[in-house]
Amino acid sequence: MAANASGPLAPELLAQLRAAIGRGDDADALRCADAVLASEPAHEATLAWLSARARQHGALDEAQRHARTGLAAHPRSGALHLQLGAAQAAAGDLESADASFRAVPAQASTHVFAQLWLGDVQARRGLRAQSLRTRAHALAE
């Protein structure tokens, strides 16, 4: 799949990426993601997906790198803060994960998920009462 590094992101590239992810074709999804990033190096959704995928495969440094690359261009991205926090939590860096989950904007569609993850991080840090309050607040939203 060829991508024009200097041109706008072709909608076909995103359609191919979504289709590959939908059919569970990891190799094709990675090729499509590479093509998307060749066209738009800081594509928010693609970097969030790559971060989640890397975390799920245990590549926690790579997961954090993808999220940080996206956050450099999209500092208020709820999806990217959520993915960064998830990778940090998986790596055992609970304080950084706490900060990343708190950075998810309240209006972001990922806010409730970030609050639930934050509650988990708080519980893992021994902050049980705070964890229960955070989770209850998230579920009440």
Question: What's this entry about, in short?
Answer:
With 141 residues, the protein is mostly helical.
What's the helix and strand layout?
Blueprint: H1 11-22, H2 26-39, H3 44-56, H4 60-73, H5 78-90, H6 94-102, H7 111-124, H8 128-140
Helix pairs in contact: 1-2, 3-4, 3-5, 4-5, 5-6, 5-7, 6-7, 7-8
Any overview of this molecule?
- The protein is mainly α and 141 residues long.
- The chain contains eight helices and no strands.
- The chain is elongated and about 50 Å long.
- The N and C termini lie far apart (42 Å).
- The relative contact order is 0.09.
Tell me the series of helices and strands, N- to C-terminal.
HHHHHHHH
How many β-strand runs? Answer: 0
- The residue-averaged pLDDT reads 91
Range of strand content: under 5%
**Main beta-sheet annotation:** none
Features:
141 residues, mainly alpha
